[in-house]
Write a structure and sequence with these properties.
Blueprint lengths: L4 H17 L5 H7 L6 H13 L3 E2 L8 E2 L1 H9 L9 H13 L4 H16 L2 E4 L9 E10 L2 E8 L3 E8 L6 H15 L4 H6 L8 H17 L6 E3 L1 H5 L10 H8 L4 H5 L10 E4 L11 E10 L3 E10 L4 H22 L1
Antiparallel strand pairs: 1-2, 3-7, 3-10, 4-5, 5-6, 8-9, 9-10
Length: about 350
Amino acid sequence: MSLAPRKEAILKILVRQYIDEANPVASEAIAHNYNLEISSATVRNDTACLEEEGYITRLHRSAGSIPTDKAYRYYVESISEDIELPLAEQYLIYKLFQETEREIEQWLKLAAALLARFVHNMAVVTPPRAPQCRFKHLDLVALQDCVALLILVLYEAKVRQQILSFSQKIAQDELTKLANKFNATYVGMTGHEITAQKLEHFVGEEQVTNCIVDVMAAEDKLEYDRPYLEGLCLMLNQPEFAKSPKILNVLEVVEREDWLKNIFPEKLDKRKIKVIIGEENQEEALQDLSLIISRYGIPDKASGIVGVLGPKRMDYARAISSVNYLSSLLNKSVIEYI
């Protein structure tokens, strides 16, 4: 729904001022502080219309105006997805990436820390993962006569461990031969491809193969790995959270491993910023917040998400441009990493 130009100008001023000051915005302040060449009475009439249309709310009739979710959505839709950070800030971030140890974990931690600093809210960055994990390396270590530790290394630097109990004693040299056989046969394969292999199995081999396939299947069920979170204190220091009992609910959500999956039951669009405002969020505890998020990486090979979580009263232009730039850098990092 589009607004008449004057109402749109008033609404954008109101949203920006509320973002900056976190206080209800008076009609007189809009008339006197901005060059709209209209009277306070006209501003009041237009804000009354905006209230009737659901864009603003007021605590009482003589109070200033507060944007609703609908106002924030209108405001966000007016911001270009291609908005960019100032070049000086882009250069600073790029330089820090170049100086960081060239490991994906270090890049992700740096991205989260920088994003939190730039938007003064909580940054969320998940490690890149493939649609299906692939076998890279296997070690089998004897622990007791009939017990061994299976150490499975997957591509994307994931290591998973499992204890195996055999029906008979298997010596370390036998376990080593078994691991070497699987390493020569299964490297680069998915769980389904391993299952389809018609190997002649000797003592313990079928049990080990089944364990590998089960571990990989459990990994494939995960939508997102545990994210790197930075800036939680920055977010909770915002005025919205002062003495708010809802803080605990927010903390409980972000501490869950599956919270991002609950927010995105559908696949996130490739290379597209997604802004979820207030009650658009399916997670009830986060409905006083907004989430700005984007996918990064190589489609169908390895991808993750980078985003910002903060109060609805956040600087959306700043957040969108920051997420855009960090996403582009992480794209390059994943290409180099893979």
